[in-house]
Specification:
The chain has one domain. Helix content is 71%, strand content 0%. Helix 3 crosses helix 4 and helix 4 runs antiparallel to helix 5. Keywords: Cell membrane, Membrane, Transmembrane, Transmembrane helix. This is DoxX family protein.
Amino acid sequence: MIDNTLILRIALAIILLSHGLPGMFDGGVNAFGNSFLNQVGFSPLGVPLAWAIKISHVLCAILLIVNKYIKPVSIVTILILLMGIIMVHASEGWFVVGGGRNGVEYNFLLICVFLYLMFPKGLKLKS
């Protein structure tokens, strides 16, 4: 039986892999660590932090595909996305394209999808 989150898990895995893998092979991770993270106060840990983020993308993608540890995967990725919003995207506004550039809407959508994976049956509130 195929679970009802399979399509979302595969889509997220593709997004995480396409965001994580290229920078590992073209110098992008080191550049992000040196030219951004180190410059905004993470020095001297910018490069190791950048690598931790990209490695987490790859590991989380694999775990999404095999449907294991979905809540921890979601929490880790949501935290990374939230930091991206705070440190980069919020100052650019809402829109990624169209009404703006590099805004928060894409990260917002990804966070919502990860929340759905964490709670596919919704949250039960005590009444």
